[in-house]
Specification:
By secondary structure, the protein is α+β, with helices and mostly antiparallel strands. Helix content is about 35%, strand content about 15%. The protein contains six helices and eight strands; from the N terminus they run H-E-H-E-E-E-E-H-E-E-H-E-H-H. Helix 5 runs antiparallel to helix 6. The radius of gyration is 27 Å and the shape is elongated. The model has no long low-confidence stretch (mean pLDDT about 85).
């Protein structure tokens, strides 16, 4: 029938409108900013950098591989790789970002940077109250402003963070086992095996 889809849409709107007066679940209007609703766990706004421990600089997971910078559709991420290296969480020397900027005026919250990061170093925040009267500098976040602890990550995305921590723990265990195995193999190879004396010598 001509116009059937429109009638169905209007019926659904009327049902929701009427239901909002009698159902608490349908009363979604919030008197913001006096009232606030906690964001759902799957919410995503702008990216932030995860660090382990208490010091953001030494605990940063990012190794400046620049994959997120290359894959970012609006090109809002800018990274400069360090000239030197520092130990990561498992003690392996790694590069780190000497500069890591995100222009949130350009970012479209697509989460591609999160999906391509092999080190679980960049995640999506739920903080949306970022208004500023500084049109340029205020919307360009540097690595210190972007850095947030793993504990904060657990607070806003507990399910996802638990999965990530389990994956990282497993990876570290495998790396430790590999290092131990290599050390044992090296010790065995380096050990001198005494030769048996020749039988029936002169």
């Amino acid at each position: 029938m001509l116009g059937e889809g429109i009638l169905k849409g209007l019926a659904e709107t009327a049902k929701n409108f009427a239901g909002s007066f009698v159902s608490a679940e349908r009363m979604t209007t919030v008197e913001y900013p006096e009232e606030r609703i906690a964001p759902i766990e799957a919410a995503r706004v702008f990216p932030f950098l995860v660090y382990d421990g208490t010091d953001w600089e030494s605990g940063m997971r990012c190794v400046a591989c620049q994959i997120c910078e290359k894959e970012c559709p609006p090109k809002c991420i800018y990274i400069e790789k360090s000239k030197d290296k520092k130990p990561d969480a498992i003690g392996k020397p790694q590069f780190y970002p000497a500069k890591f900027d995100v222009d949130i005026a350009v970012c479209m919250s697509c989460q591609i940077c999160v999906e391509v990061c092999p080190f679980e170093a960049i995640k999506m925040d739920t903080e949306f109250e970022l208004s500023t009267d500084d049109r340029f500098g205020g919307l360009l976040l540097d690595r210190e402003e972007l850095s947030k602890s793993n504990e904060y990550y657990h607070q806003i995305h507990p399910t996802e963070a638990a999965v990530v921590d389990a994956r990282l723990t497993e990876g570290r265990a495998k790396a430790d086992a590999k290092t131990t195995a290599a050390a044992i193999t090296g010790a065995i190879r380096g050990a001198e095996i005494p030769k048996r004396p020749a039988e029936g010598g002169d």
